[in-house]
Amino acid sequence: MVNPCATRRCFVAVAALLGWAGLSIQLYLILYSRWSIEASLLGGLMSFFSFFTVLSNTLVATVLTCEWTSRPSAMRRWFLQPWVASAVAVSIAVVGLTYSALLRHLWHPEGWQFLADELLHDVMPVLFLGYWWWCVPKGTLRLRHIGLWVIYPLLYFAYSLLRGHELAVYPYPFIDVDKLGYPQVFLNAAGLLVGFVLISLVVIGLDRWRHSSSLSSRRQ
Fold this sequence. Notes:
- The chain is mostly helical and about 220 residues long.
- The protein has helices at about 5-35, 40-50, 50-70, 75-80, 80-105, 110-135, 145-150, 150-165, 175-180, 180-220.
- Helix content is about 80%, strand content about 0%.
- This is Pr6Pr family membrane protein.
């Protein structure tokens, strides 16, 4: 007979390892590229963490690792809170959907870059949403949590504009002020923020539905 706990732990372990693998491959590729042209490796590290995809996947891998490990800690308790894990689920869903809708057609990676690309934009969003659906406790999310969740993309947007202003380098074409201008960039950002909020509403709705379904099945 299959042990549900063992299956869950195995799933989380594999997902966590794949998350860190995708991040590691992408970091290696960026640093190797910088080293090849004798550019600053520190600059490469800063470039690596300038992408919303990388930051969100780092949060995903962290939550999964906290779930996988059993040693109690303040960090583990924080990341395993349902509202925190749900915020990460919304963010990684935005990563996957935005990439598929706006960025996938712009390039055709090969080799290791293709592997990193698939892991960070396709595999990890699906795996983490599966983790959220099956493993994160339901019934505690409220609409007020959206106000906390949007702080992350807003801070990221502000940081990207500041960094772009100083270095003239923007992580994504839809927030490239030099090419699009501030009005269009703010319009694009507003559209993405609306998408973020809509996905948040869907997550909260699913949370409530799953909780209600669970209560109904227990009463029967």
